[in-house]
Every structure is written in C-alpha cells, then in structure tokens.
Amino acid sequence: MTTKILVPLNRSDYSREILTHIEKLMPASKSELVLFFITHPPRGMGFASPDPSSGYAMKPGGEPVGPAAHPIYAHQQEDSIRSEVEVFLIPMMKHLRELGYATTLKVCFGDNSVEEIIEVANEEKVDLIAMSTRAQDGVRRFFFGDIADKVMKEVKVPVLLIHPEV
Fold it and tell me: Rounded mean pLDDT of 15-23?
C-alpha cells in the first residue's frame, strides 16, 4: 500500500528540511509525495512603462515614441511565479525521483495557507501531512498563531512536524 504525503513548502530553506526526515522515515517504494508550494496571489502590477533610457525618440512633452505602456495582469504574474517555482524545485524533485519517490508538484495562490493545505489534503486524499514549523510561542503565537497548529486541529490525517533547533 502506498502512503500519499502532502508536503507544504514555501521559499524558506527551513520548509524544505522536512524532506530529509521523510527520506529517513518513509520508504520511497511505498510513498507518493505531493509537494505543495503556497504563495500569496498576485494582484497585477498596473502598467509597465517604457524605459526612457532605451534610446526611443521622444515626443514633445517627454513621451517615448516607442512601445506604449501595457497592463500586467495577475494571471501573467501567476504564470511567471509558477514557472519560477517549478525551476526552483526541479533539483529537489529530481533528487526525490532518483531515490524512487513518486513526486508531483502543485502550486497554489491563496491568502489563507491553512485553508489551502486542508483543501488540497482533502482533494488529494492524503494519508499524511509532513511540514516544518517555526512554532510561534508566547504573545506572537496568540496574535499570529501557527499554521501547523491550525492545520493539525482541522485535518483528519496525521501530521508530521519538525521544529527548529532551539
């Protein structure tokens, strides 16, 4: 029987440390990894303006004769971010596949990481969520909470956590 493991990741080196523990604990031949990269959704950047130093002739009033300003849409930024994430994670995915893990990547744009993790865990019907946590404490935990803590309270599958060394 294969164990399907959801691995939430972000840009931090710390989030990827969980993979070392998965390699030690979970046999590759019996594990399927879903690497889940979460980031905030882009909102679009308005208009990109031409660079006046590019050598275009100028109209009276200082407007360049060259290309006009054009909108940059959120979906264009999402495509760009998705491609960047895939390139960023290719070496890690290659390493995991060489070890024998079946590995897929999902990129998500959402404002609520906890809800996104829970939703993907349910959609993918995972058996385990494995993630790193910074484990907020004291006042910071009260005001900001801890994503891993909130996920553990909401999901019906086991959650494997690693904490920073103190």
Answer: 92
What are the residue ranges spanned by the domains of the chain?
3-41+73-101+112-162
Which backbone phi and psi does 43 adopt, to 5 degrees? -110, 5
Residues 96/20, Cβ–Cβ less than 8 Å: no
What are 70-112's pLDDT values in tens digits?
A: 667 778 888 888 899 899 899 999 999 999 999 999 998 888 9
Distance, in Å, from the CA atom of 127 to the CA atom of 138, rounded to the nearest integer, reads 31
Number of neighbouring beta carbons within 10 Å of residue 84: 13
- Domain 3-41+73-101+112-162, CATH homologous superfamily name and number: HUPs (3.40.50.620)
Q: 22-41 pLDDT, tens per residue?
A: 999 999 999 999 999 988 88
| CA pair distance 56, 64, nearest whole angstrom | 6
- Which residue is associated with the tokens 């993979």? 19
Cα 49 → chain centroid: 29
Residues 117/37, Cβ–Cβ less than 8 Å = no
Q: In one letter, which amino acid is 69? A: A
